[in-house]
Amino acid sequence: MTAFHLVLGLILAGYLGGRIVFPLRNRKVLAAVLLGMIALGAFKSVLVRLLGGPQFFAPQLPGWVLHFAAWWFGWVYFLLLLMLIAEPMRGLWALWCRKKHRPGLSPRQVNRLHGAFALTAALLASFALYGGMCAPQIREMELAFPDLPPEADGLRIAVLSDIHANPTVPEARVREFVRLTMAARPDLILLLGDYFDGTVAQAGRHVAPLAGLQAKHGVYAIPGNHEYYCGDYPAWRSFLQNLGLTMLENEQVDLPSLNLRIAGITDPAGGKFDRKAPDLAKALAGAKRKFTILLAHRPQHAPEAAKLGAKLQLSGHTHGGSVYGLKELVAKFNGGYVSGLYLVDNMPLVVSNGTGIWNGLPLRLGSPSEIIVLTLRRRNRR
Taking a C-beta distance cutoff of 8 angstroms, is the pair 144, 379 a contact? Predict the structure, then answer.
């Protein structure tokens, strides 16, 4: 990941330096300061990894450091976005001026325009940082199925995903997630992975409030990719189980009182760390004969899950794209699914924006964090 972020930083700093800093070459001090500011934001991920040690994205660094670094990166990101949006308009303006034999923008006008972009980017980064720190919304959804067991009609399911407990999502904030969930009065609670960043010693106290999640029909969970990045998944699995979360790893559990089944798979990252790789066939064995809800951290499993008989898939991982401009990119890496409700071969797929925020990019703009409260309804067959 460090090599990727190094290349990304070079691209960002190179483009913005060439378009914004180079025209200021006659104002050397200002140009040097601006280039330094751009470089700090562009290489934010590399610097955090260097300062924070071997753990994935430095969970031991103070929260304010991670937030400040995220704001700086956000400033560079939004500045890049504004510049890219302006490029075609800049070209059209130049063509129009040439056709009309009029002078184009003067260097001073160009510098003022870039200054306006820099100020706007700073405001957008501030709004995005605030959005990443906000409490999650309660997102009520209702889905109807003709083959839903009568016992499950009206079932309220609370869905939490991507909590990422760490210094940017501390214990008090996780406790608020639990309070909001319990206030929604769910009958069943399902968690979709990525509960923490760091080791049990580093993040255990931040995750501990999840013990307050209780529901009539149980609390079930699956691992996400970050569960494997910590380097000691068995320790975390035991910790989460002791909090009252029933972990499903390519497993299924029947809920006889509801006449339905919950199935869960591991994350593809598990196979890369010598743990269990996802096994949909095993998790969904018999799904065509029993109403089965699949928990899969990543949404791209949906087409295969639908073929194997799952009636509903719940996923997270994408954070809803986090900020404007990233949604389409995130979708490309997740089978085209990024946020909300999709219909995949007649199987509903619900992708959560996530309940917390990852410390590597604790920004949200246009993709608010959420706790989904899903009500199942039985629709009469025609």
Answer: yes
